[in-house]
Amino acid sequence: MSNPSRNNPLLQRFIPEARELLQASAGGLLRLEKNPQDGPAINEVFRAVHTLKGSSGLFDATALTRLVHAAEDLLGAVRAQEIVLDSSLVDMLLDSLDQVSLWVDRLEGDAELPADADGVASRMASGLRARVASKDSPETATTADATLPAEAPPIWLHRLPVESLRVGFRRACRGATVLALCYEPDPGCFYAGTDPLQAALQVPEAMAFTIEAVAPWGPVADLDPYHCNLRFHILTDAPRTEVEQAIRYELDQVSFSPVSARDLVQIAGEPSDGPVWDDFYEAASAQYAAGDLAAIRASAATLRSFTGPGLWRNDALSWLEDAASATAPDHDLVRALIDAAGTGRFGGAGNSTVSATASGAPTTLLDGPNGAVARSILAGQRQALGKDGYDEIRLASVAAVVGNLLVGLGLDAQRHAFQQAIVDTHESRSTLPLLIFLDVLESGGTPDTLPPSDPLPSITSATDLPKAADLPKSTAPGPGPGPGPDGAARNAAPEVRAPQKTLKVEQAKVDLLMNLIGELVVSKNSLPFLAKRAEETYGSRDMSREIKEQYAVIDRLAQEMQGAIMQVQMLPVSDIFDRFPRLVRDLARKLGKQIDLSVEGEDTAADKTIIEALGDPLLHIVRNSLDHGIEQPEIREAAGKARTASLRLRARQEADGVVIEVQDDGRGIDPARIRAAAIEKGVIDADEAGRLSDQEAINLIYRPGFSTAHEISDLSGRGVGMDVVLTTVEKLGGRVSVTSRLGEGTTTRLTLPLSMAVTRVMVVEAADGVYGVPMDMIAETVRVPESRIQRIKRAEAFVLRDIVIPLMRMSTLLGVPARQRNSDEEAEEAVLVCQIDGRHVGLVIDDFREGMDVILKPLQGALAGMRGYSGTALLGDGRVLLILDLKELI
Amino acid sequence: MSAEQKQILVVEDGATMRMFYRDVLSRAGFVVEEAANGFEGLERALLGRFDMLIVDINMPKMDGYELLSRLRNEPALRAIPMVAISTEAGDQDAARAYDAGANLYLVKPADPVALVQTARLLTGAAA
Predict the structure, then answer these.
(1) CATH number for position B58
(2) Interface A-B: count of C-beta contacts within 8 A
(3) pTM
């Protein structure tokens, strides 16, 4: 281990960052010294030190973190103008930064701090803290260690056995300082002759002692017995110096966190309710107000002897008794515990809610390895819901989180009750149903497995919520009916079910329907074949006619059905348009431009897949317009335009597609500049540029690697150009066109199909096979007499209405031999004129066939990697049609 | 089992912290994207399709509180789980973050095991 920092990429990243931050802080401090009123400078220094503190916490560099933390607090006080930054203070801070800088060098070399670091850090930190404290009340300055700001209790605390926590809690209540130690030995410690277990056992006065694996163990075959994969968690109330002495050889691998009595509280048990609790709550609150802790203790003890020992509230009472008997009672804690016993919930904001875990209760749903985390997440959701009751915005993410949590925990049985709670919540416009659901979940009840006679256990633990009677009837029963088609449960409470106006369906189910109807549309195409056979092969005209009649009926039904199913997953474009007003406003501000955005046709609907995929391209176009198209107000004024530019976002339905337009009245695209830039960037050469029409030149902006912006602005120019727009839109089967008038503005038009499920293709014959070509690639079909085809070296071309169109032979592209032409056949070639990347190309094929709607299926299995084909489709007569991907072929 | 490739956006100004999140979360099977400040975070969140956002509170230009509330008020991001992370352990800081729209408030440096558990539960990824 000659250079350990090299083995730790995270540390390698940290070192340069730390140096940069230290440099920035030192520079800022010097500026501050010259001008103490320099607001940006103090912010910069504070920020840099703050970031340094955050990052250093990831490493075993406790001393460094501690010193930086002290510096941050001092700077915080300076920033809040609580203390004045004088030269002596700057000196102290600079000294501290220098020390940190030395340690960073040391970390780079040895991956650990020198042995004396703890001492140095504590000396320097107390120096810094003394300056902060001198402005505070004098008593806080007396206990140097106690002035350390409260750190969050380590999250593993609640993985310790509850008995140990209880012992620690009692000692903490008696005034002892309880330390939580995490000792993670170096993985290679065995080579250094360390016995981690022995080392850990040296910690005096250990109340809890647990060992866990750092990383999952993995298969036995891969196990490296010489690699230490352990982590020790220890709770002790021995003085820190004594602990440090006992484990002095491993000190750099140990982190210490002082924990308060409150951090140690862990209440567990069954939920319960009844008037006794309310009486107690009232009485104890009065006693608390009177400051009579002895009375509180007595009330708690009495009630505890009455009530069942397995109850959560009973457990809360026992903690309360301990807290109230403390020699130096923590009044806030006593209050919190009275609330816990009185209301059934132990709370407080932030991390203290984590303490409300009940891992001891055997029946709870939230047991298991994720239990503690799940509980803290649920506690977070209560806070995220906010205090103001029903709020749709807040509700959305909370519902998503709780839903995900149920999935993550595998609590499938609860999902039904949860969905019902959400429905009820929306119906009643009150968060109560959701809160009740959370209560049930947290208290370990299983709403759908409880016997029906149970008198609504869910409401019991929500006594601090508005009375159930005040709410609309439908919400009162809380968790809702059990899962599945449980008829009995539904009959028992018929009014429970809220009238459902909308139905949530999994996307996969709709997709399946789409696929099936697609198959149906295609397979009905076999009926005309059948009719033909009936007439030709079996000579039955009547039969043929009947089949055709039936076909007409099925055809109409299938099409209607297809339309109906497509409607199911149609979304309005407002889904994507909605984000633009805000975005445009923010970007306009950032760019110093004035823009008036108008949105039209938000109700236009298109297939969900299209709407969802359209967000990014549209964003690009709008940003491009803001960035390059729309001028600064002054420039606009000088050009005789209104200072405020207008940007219009329009959507409308046209034939069987959706058209979306982005129109601005900016400076427009200058074809000359585009040509010049394209040549400079090597997109095209000068000759080619000269031949391009203005429109063709404008189309160049969609070529990869093209960007006209002179300087790379903050917004565009991140390496994603307009070619992304083109690619995305084409993937959706759509088209992009740009029209622009110099000085007057630019309009970008996206034309998209309504649905992607069905693709229209033309069937063509080439080289003794049939292939499909997507209709939207085909510009026109022509028959060209052989005599008009001109050979230019080895290439071929022909002239179509004064435009030279290069010719390619499909057989060559596909790599199959061309069909031998009969000599008496007319010397004429069938040419498919295709439009690819805005250019025309003629494809010589053998013959044209009909156009048809097909369901495109991607190539799968062994064929998946084949280039040149975008997929397959089934023909009416059962044959497989290969659909060509012309872009790749050519 | 993998985390079904859930995508997480980390908005954090410290390069080391970003790397830490990337390390821990991508090892657990998440796809992690990074943004180095609030503006970039806002843009990426709008451009990408994430299953969860991790937002540092103390950042230059636009701080985490502002970012959280901006993100939350975007119709497209209304339902996305957001985790606020800060070095401050105070109840007030947590309350402010929740108020701004966070679903969870964590204190730095986050325990890697707990971070992965949290991410899995918040995104509904199988463990």
Answers:
(1) 3.40.50.2300
(2) 171
(3) 0.37
